[in-house]
Amino acid sequence: MKRNIIITEDGSTTIHIPEWNEQYHSTHGAIQEAQHVYIQNGLQHYREENKAESISILEIGFGTGLNAFMTLLEAEKQNLIIKYKGVEAFPVSAEELEQLNYVGQLNASDKKFVFNKLHEIPWEAETKITNNFQLIKEQKDFSEINEKEAFNIIYFDAFGAELQPELWTEEIFKSMYNALKKNGVLVTYAAKGTVKRALRSVGFDLKRLPGPPGKRHMLRATKQPVIIN
To answer: Could you tell me the pTM of the whole model?
Structure first.
């Protein structure tokens, strides 16, 4: 399937799929979206709520590596220890990666080798990227995820429900719920009614939040501890 590199409104790049008229990130700003949805309302929120210094993260849709790279930068800034798993069915090519401008846009030119390393390490091999960030990438379908109580945070960054409704079902979200530890959170840019209902139906406590630039709302779903009377 043909993929093009385009510039979003905040100056950062993303990948556009003409056949679907869909992008990997918001056209209103790829970096702005990642910062608002995944870093601010995911990582920073979880850290503050749980006073956590060691955090495990699952990303649904590793894609360009933007969310992973920004999480790595935040880990170094806050001295967090991050174990990160990125799941991706269709990895980005080396040619596409060369055209992405995240290192420059994030004023992280000294970390270019780190961004490259995120993509160059072998799939299915857990690798220490920095002292604060450990990564494993798995090339598989999202329906194959079957971990139990393994993660504190899930970045749910799949393509939209209009294009791939099978990724936004109760079945998928049940596997996400099971994969989270107690008090774990799932954050996503999506806020459709069908997505909210699916998340609630499997047991998540749901909060609708203001969205990133160009989007009214986003969702944060929390796995509540089971209360035994």
So the answer is: 0.96
